[in-house]
Design brief:
The protein has 241 residues and is an alpha+beta fold. 45% of the residues lie in helices and 17% in strands. Helix 4 runs antiparallel to helix 5, helix 4 crosses helix 6 and helix 4 crosses helix 9.
Length: 241
């Protein structure tokens, strides 16, 4: 198997939402950010963590296509087929929120270590090496952190939109009938939805995803993550309308 080239994800994420309090009410404040430089920061941390262990093969995960926050990750494959999942988020509170979904994958042989805005799940030996090497690492554990407070309304709305879009990207290639069936509802809920999804993946990329699903199903999420920036831009921009 060819070794994927680990590269930084530099497509700008144009708009992000932040909730602010105003006279007892919640106001959605939209702020532009330099997605390129900010995401490079996350990539640098993820690559630093990955450098602490011996990766036979590194696979970049360019964004979290199921959650509102910016993320950069690395899947680190070992010679025995085991994998470390390294994830770095823009906001520290996102770690506890996202990890609630990862609990079933954590065990004594595949524990968890967290840092200020990152986490790693993988074989115990490697996780312990990372815990020793990273200054902000906490103790190795098999328990995820307690759930954080509920997401702000804008964050929750963006996350819902993203999960629909991630499912549509997958279905467009692997379940086209279901994709077409859902489109009228999603286009009504999110005007411009079909164009956002269809323009994110070229026909060649759709064909490539079909091959990955056939031969390397575990890599689907990493492949789809390449389109996370475009989808997040659409979902967050939709909140501003």
């Amino acid at each position: 198997m060819a070794r994927p080239k680990l590269r930084r994800y530099t497509t700008a994420i144009g708009i992000m939402a932040a909730a602010t309090l105003c006279m007892g009410c919640i106001v959605i404040a939209m702020a532009r950010m330099d997605g390129e430089s900010r995401t490079e920061d996350l990539a640098s941390i993820a690559q630093e963590i990955a450098s602490k262990i011996d990766c036979r093969e590194s696979e970049p995960v360019y964004n979290d296509i199921y959650f509102w926050d910016e993320m950069y990750g690395v899947n680190c494959y070992q010679s025995d087929g085991k994998v470390e999942a390294i994830r770095v988020y823009r906001h520290p509170s996102s770690v506890a929120a996202v990890l609630q979904d990862w609990q079933p994958l954590i065990s004594p042989s595949r524990p968890l270590v967290t840092g200020a805005n990152w986490f790693v799940i993988g074989p115990r030996k490697d996780v312990e090496m990372i815990s020793d090497a990273m200054q902000d690492a906490l103790e190795v554990t098999v328990q995820v952190p307690p759930p954080p407070p509920p997401l702000a309304p804008d964050q929750k709305s963006a996350t819902t939109c993203l999960r629909f879009a991630a499912g549509s990207l997958n279905d467009r290639a692997l379940n086209p009938n279901q994709y077409k069936q859902m489109l009228p509802y999603l286009e009504t809920k999110y005007p411009g939805y079909r164009n956002a999804v269809d323009s994110s993946m070229s026909p060649e990329q759709v064909a490539e995803l079909k091959k990955i699903a056939t031969y390397e199903e575990s890599r689907i999420e990493a492949y789809l993550s390449k389109f996370g920036s475009k989808i997040k831009k659409f979902c967050t921009a939709h909140l501003a309308n």
